Amino acid sequence: MSENEPRPAAHKPAMSIEKAQKARRKFLQSVGLTAGIVGISLLGYIPVTSARTTRLRPPGALDEADFLSSCIKCGQCVQVCPVAAIKLGDIDDGFGLGVPYIAARDQACDFSCDAVQCILACPTGSLTYHKPDFLGVRAGAPLAHAPILKAKENDAEPSLNLKERFGVARLARPESCLAVQGKGFKGQARGPAFKGEMRYVDVDRWAPIPVRDHPYERDICDLCVTECPIKDAISLQPFVNEAGDQRFMPVVQEQCVGCGVCEMICPVEPAAIVVDAQAVWKGAAR
């Protein structure tokens, strides 16, 4: 072969069928892993964009956007709550993953701690007694005056240092309310399987007990009124129904802070009275 003649091209050995299949499997695994990671990441956005759930935040919480941006998800508020009312958001909470909330029907905040320990434990001011001046206050959020805690009514200082409510109760299903029906209640408010706890001052001021261990007997059901920890937050008022019979109806007052005890203790299912998370006071029409 002369120097000017082109040399034949070198041929790479053909890839074996086994190696080709192995390479293909590796590629598909990589694609699957990437898709999985992207999918899991997107899960955090789905609940946020759909905005289907408004969480009841602990006492003293900043407005939702400020709360989500300032909470570091440390869980300190969870650890100090004496009735374990505060939970941390799960993956379906989106940006609220790991952020504290209260599911009032399961376990409400009954202020068993007296001083609102979750606020004192918060290291960032996400839960606070005193909102910074540069943060606005929504109309209807401020309380008319410091709420009086029934359990401390005979103390020298019976009030809670809360300036704003974190929700407002509402009689959502008046047709289900036992008082509206003229009925009483006897027994365990939520049945023997209910795990919620509450402080009963006549039992022990400092140690909450299971609700199932404290049965009731009422000629007219008024549990949402008597068990509300805040004075003058809800009352039972008479009315005359269409048949001309006198009945009673729970009426939420302006001092409602949104603790959720009324929703937790309501013995009918689903609860006749509920707490609207992050709601503000709009008047007695509620």
Automatic annotation (TrEMBL):
Signal peptide interval: none
Molecular functions (GO terms): 4 iron, 4 sulfur cluster binding; metal ion binding
Keywords of this entry: 4Fe-4S, Iron, Iron-sulfur, Membrane, Metal-binding, Transmembrane, Transmembrane helix
Classification via InterPro entries: 4Fe4S_Fe-S-bd, 4Fe4S_Fe_S_CS, PSI_iron-sulfur_center, TAT_signal
Transport among keywords: no
Transmembrane segments: 27-48
Stretches assigned to the 4Fe-4S ferredoxin-type domain: 61-91, 98-132, 247-278
Domain of life of the native organism: Bacteria
Name under which the protein is recorded: 4Fe-4S ferredoxin
Gene source species: Azonexus hydrophilus
